[in-house]
Amino acid sequence: MVSSPSTVDMAALTELALGLTPQRPITREKATLLAPEESAVSTTPPELDDDDRPGKVKMLHLELCENWGSPDVIGLAGLELLGHKSKVIDPATFTITSSSQSDPQKLLNGKNLTRSAEDMWLIPFDPKQHPTITINFHKPTTLTGISFWNYNSSPEMSYAGVRLFHIFINSRLAASNVLLRKAPGEFCSRLLS
């Protein structure tokens, strides 16, 4: 036997349940409300260990396509890879190589806000044959971001900084024609009024 709520309860429930649509009828047998603990649903995903996360990266490949106008060189001041919870990935967990003779290890020295050419990576540039940087992780790793610092030894040499590049992850194109901001050529930029 189905019991029906009184007309006073029905009017109150209709107003409570429908808000802006008072013409909509109640379609349940019994007028009961859910307890707060029954209606709460968590939308927060469960915490996963780094090894349980999908989208692991084994190889990251950067193809440097264009600089800011320097006719024969291209370079970067620094590079940082970000992992789970945007924490910096330890450079000891991967190897970095380039298509040129110059060792890109300088990109990982942590001296990113510098004007010292000795702390930056600069190589010959031919627009017909794009130089590359390849990072091989010792084990598949979660990669959530990449931080770049463009070449910045002087205002004139800032034109050697990378302008456009492609990102390949596990040999697949992940981002094409990524634009990097030109470095100011100074340690800091100041705007004075």
TrEMBL record:
<dbReference type="InterPro" id="IPR027859">
    <property type="entry name" value="KATNIP_dom"/>
</dbReference>
<protein>
    <recommendedName>
        <fullName>KATNIP domain-containing protein</fullName>
    </recommendedName>
</protein>
<feature type="domain" description="KATNIP">
    <location>
        <begin position="62"/>
        <end position="186"/>
    </location>
</feature>
<feature type="region of interest" description="Disordered">
    <location>
        <begin position="34"/>
        <end position="53"/>
    </location>
</feature>
<dbReference type="Pfam" id="PF14652">
    <property type="entry name" value="DUF4457"/>
</dbReference>
<dbReference type="InterPro" id="IPR026704">
    <property type="entry name" value="KATNIP"/>
</dbReference>
